[in-house]
């Protein structure tokens, strides 16, 4: 039976300032949007393996009387690097049990120490998906995605570990005394070199998620822009949507807006959406607008947290006052979502 501690440590060594409370300030050396949407023990296909090793870690297992007792078991550790664009990367770590021990065993979360140049840091808290924390030395099932941040109980700033530079990770287990002590494991991670062969995701559009929501425009031509909303479909936890409203002008210079959207799963980098327009309405609801009229299509990508790339193509045969044609726009972010920054 498989031990219930197969999990992924996302943004492993995404390290900046962090305390044991969510209220403490944090910073990471890569965009949080890079890992948004990864679930459970998922390792994206674009991630590149960098190192692996096996060690023994402490775990708690029930005795015949039902009480928990300490033992050790083999655990495999594997590290991947995920390209985040703009020369940045995140490290992903997964622990799993290759020998399929008893599923009732509970892993004691190990201590992790990071060495980089003259900088040595100990990971003291692990942030779980949803904002909760687990402290090394505790045991139990680790639900879903976890993100490692350096923690400081006194809220004293730590200097940031650069996850894209070379570093070493020591995995040890000093929390329990057992007849067969666990062994330490040292893993070396080479510096990130974003070449196209090893990291095909190093350039190009980024996976779309809610951190890219906001308002985008061309600063040289104010007055026109697009509002992008990214959300979850109710009752379908793995289904999301992108909805947009493009505020522009018709051929006579009167305000005109185009809207559209689509649903999606996973982490797509490009969305192709039907677009429509309405007319006939009046201010303040004095008169309802006509039903939607198909306008054409709008495609959206995000090259980074600051830039939206928009391709559009209008249908043939639109009324004379309706804007038409095809084109490509590169618009800059104007606003984002409070408390949900992309960078």
Brief rundown of the structure:
This protein is mainly beta and about 350 residues long.
Structure, described:
By secondary structure, the protein is mostly beta strands. The protein is built from no helices and 20 strands. The protein has strands spanning 7-12, 48-62, 68-85, 88-96, 106-107, 111-116, 119-123, 125-128, 133-134, 146-149, 167-172, 185-189, 214-217, 225-232, 239-249, 255-265, 271-277, 293-304, 307-314, 326-335. Strands 5-2-3-4-1-10-8-9 form an 8-stranded mixed sheet, with no helix packed on it. It has an 8-stranded antiparallel barrel with strand order 13-14-15-16-17-18-19-20. It has a 4-stranded antiparallel sheet with strand order 7-6-11-12, with no helix packed on it. The protein is elongated and about 80 Å long. Mean pLDDT is 76; it is low at 1-27, 125-132 and 142-159.
What is the approximate shape? elongated
The tally of helices reads 0
Please list the strands of the largest sheet in the order they lie side by side. Answer: 5-2-3-4-1-10-8-9
Q: What radius of gyration results from the CA coordinates? A: 25 Å
What is the percent of helical residues? under 10%
Largest sheet: 8 strands, mixed
**Structural class, please?**
mainly beta
Per DSSP, what share of the residues sits in E-state strands of 2 or more residues?
35-45%
Mean pLDDT across the residues is: 76
Extended strand count: 20
Query: Would you list the SSEs in sequence order as H and E?
Result: EEEEEEEEEEEEEEEEEEEE
Low-confidence stretches: 1-27, 125-132, 142-159
First CA to last CA: what distance? 41 Å
């Amino acid at each position: 039976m498989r031990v219930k501690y197969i999990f992924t440590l996302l943004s492993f060594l995404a390290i900046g300032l962090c305390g044991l409370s969510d209220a403490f300030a944090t910073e990471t050396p890569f965009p949080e949007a890079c890992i948004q949407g990864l679930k459970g023990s998922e390792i994206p296909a674009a991630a590149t393996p960098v190192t692996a090793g096996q060690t023994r870690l402490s775990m708690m297992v029930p005795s015949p009387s039902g009480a928990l007792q300490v033992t050790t078991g083999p655990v495999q550790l594997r590290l991947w690097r995920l390209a985040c664009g703009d020369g940045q990367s995140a490290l992903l770590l997964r622990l799993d049990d290759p020998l399929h021990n008893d599923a009732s065993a509970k892993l004691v979360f190990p201590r992790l120490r990071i060495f980089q140049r003259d900088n040595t840091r100990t990971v003291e808290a692990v942030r779980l998906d949803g904002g909760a924390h687990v402290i090394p030395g505790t045991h139990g099932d680790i639900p879903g995605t976890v993100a490692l941040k350096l923690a400081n109980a006194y809220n004293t700033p730590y200097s940031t570990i650069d996850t894209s530079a070379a570093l070493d990770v020591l995995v040890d287990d000093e929390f329990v005394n057992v007849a067969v002590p666990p062994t330490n494991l040292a893993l070396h991670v080479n510096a990130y070199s974003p070449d196209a062969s090893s990291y095909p995701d190093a350039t190009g559009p980024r996976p779309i998620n809610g951190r890219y929501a906001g308002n985008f425009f061309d600063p040289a031509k104010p007055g026109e822009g697009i509002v992008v909303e990214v959300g979850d479909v109710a009752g379908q936890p793995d289904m999301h949507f992108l909805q947009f409203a493009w505020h522009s002008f018709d051929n006579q210079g009167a305000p005109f807006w185009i809207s559209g959207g689509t649903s999606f799963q996973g982490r797509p980098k490009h969305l192709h959406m039907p677009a429509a327009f309405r007319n006939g309405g009046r201010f303040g609801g004095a008169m309802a607008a006509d039903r939607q009229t198909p306008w054409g299509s709008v495609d959206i990508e995000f090259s980074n947290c600051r830039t939206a790339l928009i391709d559009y193509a209008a249908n043939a045969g639109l009324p004379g006052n309706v804007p038409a044609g095809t084109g490509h726009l590169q618009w800059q972010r104007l606003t984002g979502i409070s408390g949900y920054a992309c960078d």
